[in-house]
């Protein structure tokens, strides 16, 4: 596996979490999600986002409503359901636990690396 593939897989693993977080702030239009994810360097395209939004809706974690637009066709705005809020809370707990675990492993690796360096001096 090359680094680009590894990076893509890592991003895919947290994309759902990030999308739910964005939607948790209030009604949001898909292109606004794309803009935010792109500015956060998540490198998401419409072909990835829309199927994920459909899957999240089918899971009962989000819903949408149509809003008339003065500059074109109606827009679909996404919102979290109560089940989605509960799911996001559970994901956030998991995220913090996982982030702490990864930090622990990295910190220990750094400690051992410093120890090895000082022994060889």
TrEMBL record:
Annotated Gene3D superfamilies: Winged helix-like DNA-binding domain superfamily/Winged helix DNA-binding domain
Record protein name field: Transcriptional regulator, PadR family
InterPro entries, sorted: Metal_resp_DNA-bind_regulator, Tscrpt_reg_PadR_N, WH-like_DNA-bd_sf, WH_DNA-bd_sf
Organism: Dyadobacter koreensis
Domain of life (superkingdom): Bacteria
Domain Transcription regulator PadR N-terminal intervals: 19-88
């Amino acid at each position: 596996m090359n680094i680009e593939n590894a990076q893509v897989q890592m991003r895919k693993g947290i994309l759902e979490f990030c999308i739910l977080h964005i939607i948790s702030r209030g009604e949001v239009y898909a292109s606004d999600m794309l803009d935010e994810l792109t500015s956060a360097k998540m490198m998401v395209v419409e072909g990835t986002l829309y199927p994920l939004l459909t899957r999240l809706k089918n899971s009962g974690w989000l819903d949408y409503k149509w809003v008339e637009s003065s500059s074109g066709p109606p827009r679909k705005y996404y919102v979290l359901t109560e089940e989605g809020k509960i799911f996001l809370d559970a994901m956030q707990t998991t995220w913090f636990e996982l982030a702490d675990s990864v930090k622990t492993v990295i910190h220990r690796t750094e400690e051992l690396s410093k120890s090895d360096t000082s022994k060889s001096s």
